[in-house]
Amino acid sequence: MKSTALKVENISKSYLIGKISSGTLSRDIESKLTNWFSKKSDEDILNKNEKVWSLKDINFELKQGEALGIIGKNGAGKSTLLKILSRVTTPTKGNIYGTGRIASLLEVGTGFHPELSGRENIFLNGAILGMKKHEIKRNFDEIVDFSGVEKYIDTPVKRYSSGMYVRLAFAVAAHLESEILIVDEVLAVGDADFQKKCLGKMGSISKGQGRTVLFVSHNMQSIQSLCSKALLLNKGKMQGFGAVPEMISKYLQNNEIFIPLNERTDRKGDGKVKVISVHFIDAKTNQFTNNFYVGMDLIIEIELASIQFNLNHHLEISLGISDQFGTRITLISNKVSGQNLNPFPNGNWSQKIHINKLPLVMGKYFFTVFISSNGNVHDWIIDAFPIMIESDKYYGELVHTLPTGQGNIYTDFQFI
Amino acid sequence: MLKTAKQDWVIKSKSNWLNIDFISAWEYKDLFILFIKRDFVAFYKQTILGPLWFFLQPIITMFVFAFVFGKIGNISTNNLPKPLFYLPGIICWNYFAECILKNSTVFRDNANLFSKVYFPRIILPMSIVFSSMVRFFIQQFLFVIILIIYSFNGFKTHINATILLLPVLLILMAALGQGIGLIISSLTTKYRDLALLVNFGVQLLMFSTTVAYPLSAAPQNFKFWIALNPMTTILETFRYSFLGQGQFSVSALIYTSILTLVIFLLGIILFSKVEKDFIDTI
Predict the structure, then answer these.
(1) How confident is the model at residue B268 (pLDDT cuts 50, 70, 90)?
(2) Total domains, chain A
(3) Do B280 and A113 touch (CB under 8 A)?
(4) Do the chains contact at B8 and A99, CB–CB below 8 Å?
């Protein structure tokens, strides 16, 4: 049984919104005096201000060597929790107990001084992050090696390119020797190669070296590959704590504030052809469905309405698919496939699209609808509707997920 | 609850009136030294003349003082050669003023650092006092050289036993500058208007003590008020120990020490109150 590394008990944090201070000394003294004479207690003054809880009653416990992913929407309280754990700010209520040294990485390169050389900054930054001088000395060669800037190690960092700067900064942080490491989404820096290197390093820290890691990210893939547990925050409250896949699907579900198409006010286009609604049909059962899984045969049915549309014009219907980070994955369009659509009357009609073996990896995707003819946009709805694709069964019944960082599209291949 | 034997540290919501953990601050002594080094190295790396500035600044000020106060104002220097009279005052005041000014902006200057990473906050203002001390020592060295040159040319130095008080004087100046600076910096996180006052105030304060004139030259009815300024005792004792001129009194030194201690503690307490959640108000 591994020992507890970190125990968080009823952690809450509130901010006062309203007039805490007028900002100038004289007016503050004045209001303090009036409060005294009118015999109001400090409590009354506090009550007049609005108290906002950015974190409320957070409880969890981590064993040594566990890696916790903290997920939640922006404003869910992730950063506040990290700040409290890193001792940058204090909790309003609650206690945190811990064993071992704790180091936090809320930013890479904190305290770097532009005038100092790379070498000097390694020592300064390392010490700021809580390393002892002899620890930095011991790891110095490895840090320089990892960063790949050995040629410029005695150059002031102000002459570094931003890439070199970030690499050096992360290299220092990656060699922290604390038992508990807190990492914010600092990995979202540098080029793809370096990001991969960072993720690998993070993995070896938590898995290989048996250190406890707390990791905040919006990237569900890195959470999934790095973490053994997840904490889901929503509006400052704990929505769940437990197994990673469970928490991620919970997060993706409640992430949904889906506006129905007819209530969307940000549609573009002249409206001569408009999307009324979109349905999904499982091609195997020929039933409407809202469950999507990798490798399924899917039919998308788009209901449309056209008014005053010149039927001689060639209509183009496109569906753009983006992942949850807004990256466009692919485009389904009759213009791409070179198909002309069947003639249709003015009024309501529907168009079906058949997708063979849905090749997208598990996750959430957004469909953007685009309808045009002869260069005129009729209807254009960005991220019109989301779908959640579950369970990886692309290559038969064997469940084989693509490894992290290896893309998000399956290829229909066979080894022959 | 964890077993008490296993648990290394606790983050608590409530804190005492003085929550500076000096033991964990000691753990960060490497960082403390690196901060001092950074301040010093970064200062001369950015300049063309480099460390030469440490000498130029007091010498130029000395000439200006000698011209304005000595020649035009005809203010006595207790029969001392003008450079020997003005230099110690300028050097000490520079150090004191720098401690105040740099400490008074410690939260503002390091807001980013403070919002991203934890270390015992107190080591940052402490490091300021010590990195400024390096400059003080270099300038002090300049003063001693000039003193030696003068004594070769027949000036009698009158160095006496009070010279042993020099470390005490230095500590008093450091603590006083630190205390005042921390009080200002703690208040300026909430009240910005104080920050505007600091530069101006420190300049004015210089004239309320014996930097540019000896205490003996002050009008009788003002002497009491001038002596109230703790820097007066420090400056007078400093001059007395090297030059034998100035007023040295044990009671004034005790008064100054007590006042300094009070201001220093007040500064530390205010700082410890503000540092724990100033990030939320910035």
Answers:
(1) very high
(2) 2
(3) no
(4) yes
